[in-house]
Amino acid sequence: MTKKQVAPRGLKRGDLVVEEIKRWITDRNLTPGEKLPKEAELQEMFGVSRGTMREALKALEVQGLIRLSTGPAGGATIERVTLDRTFQFLQNYLFFQDITIGDIYALRRMLEPEMAAMAVPHLTDGDLEALARSIEISDPSEDNVHPAVMQRIEDLRFHDIFAEACPNPFLRFQCRMINRMLETMVESSLHATMDEHQSLGEAAWRAHKKILVAARKADADEVRKLMHAHIVENQRHLDLLQAGLRSRLVLDSELRLGAGLPASLGPVKPPRRQPKR
User: Fold this and answer.
1) Exposure string (b/e) for 54-76, b if CB count within 10 Å is 16 or more?
2) In the CATH scheme, what is the homologous superfamily, with its name and number, of domain 83-262?
3) CA torsion 138→144→149→152, rounded to 10°?
4) Element (H or E) spanning 75, and its range?
C-alpha cells in the first residue's frame, strides 16, 4: 500500500492498513509474543500518516490481536486472542438474535456429553481433585458459607474442568462458550427464590458426584450417559429461573482480562411458549 493508493468507497484508509498488517503477520508466520516494527517504521512500510497508522493499530488492539505499550521498549506485540474477548464479540452478535434457553440446551445436549467422554482419558490427578473441590464448594447444604449464586456458578466450573481436558480445541471452545452464557443466566437470576436455587443446586450436586465417580474409574461411556441425563434434568430446573433473564451487550470493563472468563455475560431470552391446544 502506498500513499498514492485511495481506499475503496465505504472503506477507510485505516481499515486497509489493518488488512495489510494482518497479511504481513500471516505471511511471516509471526506468533504471540513477537513484536511488530516500531510505529515510524510501520508508517514507512505501508506509506501512511502517523494518524492513520495509530488508528489501524488501535483497531488491531480492540480485536485482541496486538497489545500496545508505551516507553522505550514499547510498541505493538502480537497477542493470542483471549476467550473473554472472543466471547464478547460472539455475545454482541447474539444480542440481536432470537436465542432462547431451549436453543442453548439443544446444542449443549449434543456437545457436552461427547466433550466430557473425550476428556476422561486426559483428566489428571489435579483435574480430579479440582472436580472434587468444585463439588464441595457447590454443596447445597445449609452450612455451606458460599452464597447460592456462587454455588451455581461453581456448578458450571465443574463442566469447565472437563472442557479444559478435552483434546479437541474446537469442541472445547464451543462448550466453554455455552457455559459462559449459562453463567450469565445464573447471575441474572437474582429474582429466583432460595427454594428454586436449592432445587437446582441439589440436582446438579447429585449428578456431579455420580459423574466424578465414573471419571475416577475412567469410564468414558458412563460419563457420557450421566452427563446427558444431567443436562436434560438441569434444563428443567433452569426453566424455573428464566423469568427475569435479560439480553444486553458485554462491556469492556466487565471482562476479566487475563483470567479468560467474562465477568458478566448475556444474552438469553425465555423459551418460546408452545401454543395451548
Assistant:
1) bbbbebbeeebbbbbeeeeeebb
2) GntR ligand-binding domain-like (1.20.120.530)
3) 10
4) strand 75-78
What is the DSSP code string of 8-32? PTT--HHHHHHHHHHHHHHHTT--T
Percent of the chain whose predicted confidence (pLDDT) is above 70: 76
* 169-187 and 83-94 helices, crossing angle to 10°: 60
C-alpha cell at 228: 446427558
Cell of 33: 509474543
Element (H, E) at 115: helix 101-119
Burial class of residue 219 in the structure, from the number of CB atoms within 10 Å of its CB (0-12 exposed, 13-18 middle, 19+ buried):
middle
Q: What are phi and psi of 76, to 5 degrees?
A: -105, 125
The residues of the chain that CATH labels 1.20.120.530 are 83-262
Does the predicted model carry a pTM greater than 0.90? no
Q: Where in the chain is the domain with CATH 1.10.10.10?
A: 13-78
CA–CA distance, 260 with 251 (Å, rounded to integer): 15
234-267: per-residue pLDDT in tens? 888 777 655 444 555 666 666 654 333 333 333 3
Percent of the chain with pLDDT over 90: 52
DSSP 35: B
CATH for 13-78 is: 1.10.10.10
Beta partners for residue 269, in sequence order:
100
